[in-house]
Amino acid sequence: MPDGKPAGVRCVQLDDQNLCKLFNDPHRPTLCRQFDYDEAVCGESREEALVILTQWEHATA
Ligand code: SF4
């Protein structure tokens, strides 16, 4: 995604199991490498993370 990943758009590097195809690749974006699990962002499931992130996107739009 040469112009960056817009909020709410699925990353093209996610595979069918929602795992990052660049995880051990040096081309993985720095921001992605620096991010670590945070319950305040990720919740306890993918569904919960999507709800939290959507709330943050609306709050900061
Ligand atoms: S970690 Fe980064 S590159 Fe990998 S799937 Fe997520 S947003 Fe895309």
Secondary-structure class: mainly alpha
What's the overall average pLDDT, rounded?
A: 93
- The number of helices is 3
Shape descriptor reads globular
* Helical coverage, percent range: 25-40%
Any idea what the radius of gyration is? 12 Å
Protein name: YkgJ family cysteine cluster protein
Description:
The protein has 61 residues and is mostly helical. Helix content is 39%, strand content 0%. It contains three helices and no strands. It has helices at residues 30-34, 39-42, 46-60. It is globular. The two termini are 21 Å apart. The site of iron/sulfur cluster has 9 residues, from loops.
SSE layout and pairings?
Blueprint: H1 30-34, H2 39-42, H3 46-60
This protein binds iron/sulfur cluster (SF4).
Iron/sulfur cluster (SF4) binds at residues 5, 11, 13-14, 20, 22, 28-29, 32.
Organism: Salinicola rhizosphaerae
Protein name: YkgJ family cysteine cluster protein
Short description:
This is YkgJ family cysteine cluster protein. The protein has 61 residues and is an all-alpha fold.
List its salient traits.
61 residues, mainly alpha, globular, binds iron/sulfur cluster
